[in-house]
Design brief:
The protein is mainly α. The protein contains 7 helices and no strands. α3 crosses α4. The longest helix is centred in the C-terminal third of the chain and has 39 residues, at about 110-149.
């Protein structure tokens, strides 16, 4: 083997080790739920206050979650994952779709993230409105059936 081949092999090994480290950056062994939540919130360009407002909780609650003093309930976890564009499993244990480790470039621009966030919010509003409409339709049906008897 030549010296160039040895150098290439060492570089390949270094690159593989860096990739392994990056993949495990937010793993369950290296990071807590709070670490992953804070990273996802920052990657989404949100403050604790703005995330709290979108979730309908207090800023103090978000701070508690990020500092691992408490954990959100299941319904809030699902909302968090959607708002922050990460998978529920990634938030819980670091596996699945999450944010890029520090030092790696995010493939989405800030503008693209803002658009995605607004689309998710709108989708949530539409789902809430659809549920409300279904409840009203059922209520109207009961009223009409009760009025005819």
């Amino acid at each position: 083997m030549t010296k160039d081949t040895d150098a290439l092999t060492e570089a390949d090994v270094d690159e593989a080790e860096a990739a392994d480290a990056a993949e495990g950056w937010y793993s369950e062994e290296r990071a807590t739920f709070g670490d992953r939540l804070a990273a996802a919130r920052e990657a989404a360009g949100l403050s604790q206050k703005s995330l709290a407002k979108r979730l309908g909780v207090k800023s103090k609650t978000i701070a508690g979650w990020e500092n691992d003093l408490s954990e959100p309930r299941a319904n809030r976890l699902q909302m968090l994952a959607g708002l922050l564009n990460v998978s529920l499993m990634w938030l819980l244990n670091g596996e699945g779709d999450g944010v890029a480790p520090p030092g790696e470039e995010d493939p989405l621009s800030k503008d693209a993230r803002a658009i995605l966030l607004e689309m998710r919010e709108l989708k949530g509003e539409i789902e809430t409105a659809a549920q409300r409409l279904a409840r009203l339709e059922k209520h109207l049906q009961r009223v009409l059936e009760g009025g005819m008897s």
